[in-house]
Amino acid sequence: MPNPRRLPPPYPPSPERSAEVRRRFGEEARAERPDLAALCLLIGAEADGSLDEAGIDAAQAELDRLAGELPYRPGGPRAWAEAVRRLLGGRYEFHGTPGDYERLESSLLHEVLRRRRGLPILLSVVWLEVARRAGAPVYGVALPGHFVVGFGAPGEQVLADPFEGGRVLSGPDAELLVVGATGAPLDPAMLGAAPPLEVVQRILNNIRAWAAARPERSDVALRAVELSLLIPAHPARLRYERGQLLVQRGEFLAGAAELDAYAELIEVVDEPAAERVRRQARTARAKLN
Questions:
Q1: Tally of CA atoms within 13 A in the half-sphere of 202 that contains its CB
Q2: How far apart are CA 247 and CA 72, in angstroms?
C-alpha cells in the first residue's frame, strides 16, 4: 500500500487518538438525542489527525458565534430562511462549487467552517447547527442527490439550498432537483426531517464514494466504513465492504475473517451469495502462501 505520508493531506490520527475518537463517536451515535455537530467533528478527527480537542472546541465555538449574529426571532419560516441566508450565504459567503466534490475536506465540518465551501450536506449541517442554536424551526431534508434545509412545519415549510448560498427554493425548484437526480417526480415523503444519524450515515457514504474513486485512499474508505459500523442499525453489507477493503490493503487474515462473518449473516436468506463470499475469503487466505 502507498505510504500515507506520500499522499496529500489530511493525514490520519495516531492509533491511540483514533481509538478515543471512535469510542466517543460510538457513544454519541447511541445517545438518546445524538449531537449532529459533535458526530460530524468526530468524523473530521478520524480523517484528519491535525484536528485535536482544541480544534473541535473552536469549531463548536464558531457555530455558537455565527448563531449569535442571527436576529432574535425574525418571524416565520421564510423570515428565518432569509435571515440565515443573509448571514451565512451573504455576509460569510458559505456556498458550494462543482470543484468541492473533488475534495475530501468538503465532507469535514471543521474544514467547511474554515473554507466556507463544501458539499450540500455539510453546508446544510452548518445551516442547521447555526439556525438551531438561534432557536429556528429547522431540520435537514434529504432530497435524492441533493441535501437541503427546511424551516417550519409541513403546511408552511420553506426550503433553502445552502450549496447555492441559501437560496430559498420554490416548489418547482425542489421538483427539478429531484427529477434531475432520479428522473422521478418529487414525492412529498421526501420533504420530511432527516434524523441526525441518517445525516451522518449519508456523510460517511459520501466519503466512501470519494475514496472509492481513489484506490490509493483505501485508508479513508476503511475509516469511513468502520465509523459507519458504529451507527446502530447499519446495513449488514458494510461488513462485506470492510472485508474487501482489508484484503485490498493486504490484511488478508482480518479481511477473510470479516468476509466469513458476513457470509454467516446472509446465509439464511441467500445461501449461494454466502458461498461466493466464503470463496473470496478462501482466496484472501491463500494469498498468504
A1: 22
A2: 54
From residue 47, alpha-carbon distances to 1, 42, 105, 207, 230 in Å are 18, 9, 9, 10, 16
Three-point CA angle 81, 95, 99, nearest 5°? 150
Structural contact between residues 142 and 194, judged by C-beta atoms closer than 8 angstroms = yes
Q: Tell me the CB-side half-sphere exposure of residue 82, using CA atoms within 13 A.
A: 7
Task: Report which of 270, 269, 212 is spatially closest to residue 241, judged by C-alpha positions.
Answer: 212
Burial of 247 (0-12, 13-18, 19+ CB in 10 A): buried
Hey, how many other C-beta atoms are within 10 angstroms of the C-beta on 64?
13
pLDDT at 181 over 80: no
Strand ranges in the chain using DSSP code E only, listed in sequence order:
138-143, 146-151, 158-161, 167-169
Single-letter amino acid, residue 224 = A
Q: How far apart are CA 21 and CA 67, in angstroms?
A: 26
Strand pairing of 167-169 and 138-143? unpaired
Residue where the block lists cell 450536506: 121
CB of 59 closer than 8 Å to CB of 66? no
Position of cell 457514504? 205
Distance between CA atoms of residues 221 and 203, nearest Å: 12
pLDDT at 70 over 80: yes
Per-residue confidence (pLDDT) for residue 171, from 0 to 100:
75
Q: What digits encode the pLDDT tens for the residues 190-221?
A: 889 999 999 999 999 999 999 999 999 999 99
**How far is 66 from 125, CA to CA, in rounded Å?**
13
Q: pLDDT of 72-92, one tens digit each?
A: 999 999 999 999 999 999 999
The Cα–Cα gap between 62 and 113 comes to 8
Q: Where are the beta strands (DSSP E) in 24-64?
A: none
* Cis amide bond preceding 10, omega within 30: yes
